[in-house]
Every structure is written in structure tokens, then in C-alpha cells.
Amino acid sequence: MELLLQQILAGLATGTIYACIALAIVMTYQAIGHLNFAQGEMAMFSTFIAWQLTQWGAPYWVAFFVTVAVSFAGGVLIELIVLRPIQHAPVLSHVAVFIGLLAILNSLAGFLWDFNVKPFPTPFGTAPLFANGFIDAHQAGMIAVTLFLLAFLYVFFRFTRVGLAMRAAAHDPVSARLVGIRVGWMTALGWGMAAAIGAIAGMMIAPVVFLEPNMMLGVLLYGFAGAVLGGLTSPAGAVIGGLIVGVIENLAGTFIPVIGGELKLTIALAIIVVVLVMKPQGLLGRPVLHRV
Amino acid sequence: MTALLDVYGLHASYGPTRVLHGLSFSVSDRGVTTLLGGNGAGKTTTLRAICGMVARTGEITFAGQTITRSSTEHIARLGVAHVPDGRGTFTRLTVEENLELGAITRRDRNDVVDDLERVFGYFPVLQKRRGQQAGTLSGGEQQMLAIGRALMLRPRLMLLDEPSFGLAPRLVHELFDILTTLNKREGVSLLLVEQNAALALELADHAYLLETGRIVFSGAAREIREDEKIRRSYLGY
Ligand SMILES: Nc1ncnc2c1ncn2[C@@H]1O[C@H](COP(=O)(O)OP(=O)(O)OP(=O)(O)O)[C@@H](O)[C@H]1O
Ligand SMILES: [Mg+2]
Fold first, then answer.
1. How many helices (DSSP H) and strands (DSSP E) are in chain A?
2. Which of A267, B14, B21, B138 is deepest in the core (most CB within 10 A)?
3. Is the pLDDT of residue B196 over 90?
4. ipTM of this complex > 0.90?
């Protein structure tokens, strides 16, 4: 029983990271109607920036906040430079651009920082939280940081004017323009925020998975699974979906011996396929309506 | 009277299809102009062209400023509130959020709070439903919400695309009373597109009649109202 509880807690810890990536994906999806496959690589690149800053001697939290700011700016720039020009282009052009972005960021990180696995610092320590615990201080810190982030985002979108304008622009860009909202700026802002959220997720998970250019591959898949599970149209759904995927991953890895470590990634893909077949709109998403 | 909105030689097209062929008309300051015409005449397109929602050429001036090349959001910020065909409600947001969005570009935040109360004064039903998702309102309630949201901008000019569409007769009269009040008391100029020509001509001071993207007749609303021949041949009543 206690093992189960602890495994659930540990699952929630990684689940918060999947929730962040899922949320970043959903925010972008709502703003531009496309899935950003490069979200994980953007987060990985941000994490390398943080690592570089700490290598240069920056204290952890300085590196953390500088990285968040730089990532935000980077996200805005990617939207302005790469996506704005193709905003009316068909889906396949977007897919091509995202895959290109993914490959560029991946090889650029490899070129700048090589492919050797690097340890990444944690500000919380790694002492076990309970006497016989599976969940350690870093996992607890990870949960705290992401919960804080999610609360911040909730307040931002729910109670600020910019948040309201961003939601309006995502729901109905034409009507948003009619009330004077600069929809283009809102999209860029959304990209900046998604990149910053990804950066935080990357820095939180890096001490666990270690730092290397391919570190986010698994995380991105789980994030996608969470987003699909919760419904691509619902930010709250994405968060819940991400948490559920984290718990399922952990429980399956522990209690179903065949799955172990190697097959765990298959679970993410299985979740995506099952949800798409059984309930395409996800747990909290709106069904896609087609006029008949 | 000086013109608040001046449109000269307006052409507009959807892709390669041109639908407006050189319209010229104006809305005087604090005045009411109505655009009449049958289905597909180009009334909706005219309002869209003014707001930069379709490709257009010609010369559009609002309050002395050329807006022919301005973006939709910029034109809204100048004080042009468009109540579009199909109402443009943010269906997944609440009634109150919709109204707040109407005022989203305004800096005078204290007055916005007063204006919200003012809109609730005009449309009490919106106050009752303020926390409800806008998509769950009835058609008539959504029409009121659309007009309420436009008011939240404190517009100088309102573009109204068939505001009476789908409303019960009693509500139509209530709505036109409110529009009259807005125009007379608050000095909001109106450009009104209506199927209900009789009603529109009562409110308007000037009328233009559109047929397949051209103005075929224009004049003082009073004259048209009183000229049976024109009414018969163009307006069918
Ligand atoms: N999105 C569009 N794409 C292509 N053609 C369009 C589009 N919208 C309207 N049209 C065409 O432009 C012409 C004018 O349409 P518009 O909607 O302006 O007419 P209207 O006067 O508002 O008619 P109604 O009284 O039915 O609302 C019509 O021939 C219509 O078919
Ligand atoms: Mg129309």
C-alpha cells in the first residue's frame, strides 16, 4: 500500500513535467491550430542555456530566471521569424517547419555542447523525503515549482486583461480583431509563454533524465500523450492528462514486470492511439463538430 | 453636417471575385445612415470592407483619417464598433467576459466599470446571465450581447449588420428604441444595414440602396419614406 502511494507520488512528480509540456503544446495549438513537434527540443535548448550559465558561475536561481526570460524572447522570435510568414500555409508546411526546427535545435545543441550526457544541478537536493522514500527532495521541489507555475498561469489567463485577450484571440481571431485585439501580438506572446513553460519543465526534469540533446524525446511523447488524453482544446485537460500519464507510466513500470524500463515509452504511444480511437476530443476537450 | 465616415469609390473582392464596384457614401457626425438592398447586394461586404476584413481599394476616411490601409484592430481602436453579421460572440467565454472584451483596448478603466452598469441598464437580461457561457444564450440575447459589447468600446461609430435579425417583433422595437437613444443622447453615429427597410428608414437620416455591389439610389430617409414609387419599386413595401 505504501509502495503504491509512493509510486503515485513519484508519478505525479514526473507527471507535472509532462503536464507543462502538454500545456505548452495546447497553448500553441489553440493559438495557431498546429502541433509544435519542436516544443521538446526548444525546452532542451533552454535547459542547455541554463547549464551554460551555471558553468559560467551563475547561481542556480539566477540561471533559472535568465533562462526563462531568454526562452520567452526566443519563443517570440521563432513565431515572428519562422511562423508568421507561413501562417496561412497548409498543415504539411507547418509539419515540415516544426520538424526542421526540431532537427536544427537538436544538432545545434550537439554542436555547441556535444552529445555527452551531463549532470544538471538541482536546487532542492536529492535527499529522500521519507525514510524509505522513493520520492526525494528534488521530486518534491519539481512538484512545488510546477504547481506554482500552473497557479500563476491560471491567475494570468483567468483574471488579467492580457490573459483574456489571449483567450479571445485563440477562440475567435476575427471577432478579436473587431474589438481591437492585436491578434498577431497575442500569438507571439503565446509562443513566448509556451517556450518559457517548456524551459521550466526542461530545467526541472534535467537532473532526473540528465542533460543531452535527446533528453526531451521521451518527455515530448509523454507530453503529447497527456495533451491528447486531456483534449487538445483544453489547457486544464492537458495538465490533468499530463499528470495521469505520469502516474500510469510509473505504476506500469513498477507493477507490470514485463514493461520495466524499456517498454515504458510504448505506453505513451498506446495512450495516444487508444484515446484517438475511443474519445478523440479527450477528457475535457470539446468535440470537433462538422456541419452535415 | 460634416461627415464622420466618408467612403469614396470603394471596391472589394473575395479572392478574384469582385463584389463591390465603386461605392461612395458617408455617415454624418452623430447621424444615422442606412444601407438597404436585397440578399447578396453587398451590404455585409461593405461593412467588412470599412473594417478591413476583406481586400478593398478606394478611399475611406474616418474622423478625418484615411483608414483604407489600416488593420481591423487599428480601426476598432479608433472607435469603430462593428456588430457583425452572425454577432461575433465569443461563445466559450462568459457574458461578462464578452462585455469586458468590448472595452479591452480602453485605458480609462474606472469608466469601463460604469459602462458595464450602463449596458446592464439597457439590457437587464445580460446582468442576469453575466456568468453564463455566451454560447448558451438565446439568439435574441446574443444579439443584445453583441450590441452591448460594441457599446463597451464607447464607439464614435457603430456598424450594425441586421441587428433585428431573428428577434421577436417586440424586441425589435425595444432594440430600435435603444439605438435611437444611443444616437440622440450619446451621440453615437450609426451605419445600419437592415432587411426591415421601414424600420431602418424611421431611424435613419440618410439612405443608400445597393444592388449587386452598386448604389442605385440615395437620398434623405424622409424623402424615400414618403415616395411611394421608390418604396414600391426598390423596397417592396
Ligand atoms: N466569403 C465570401 N467568399 C466569396 N464570396 C462571398 C463571400 N461572402 C459574400 N460573398 C458574395 O458577395 C456578394 C455580396 O454578399 P454580402 O454578404 O455582402 O451580401 P448582403 O447584401 O449582406 O446579403 P444578405 O442580405 O443576404 O446578408 C454575394 O454575391 C456573395 O455571394
Ligand atoms: Mg449580409
1. 11, 0
2. A267
3. no
4. yes
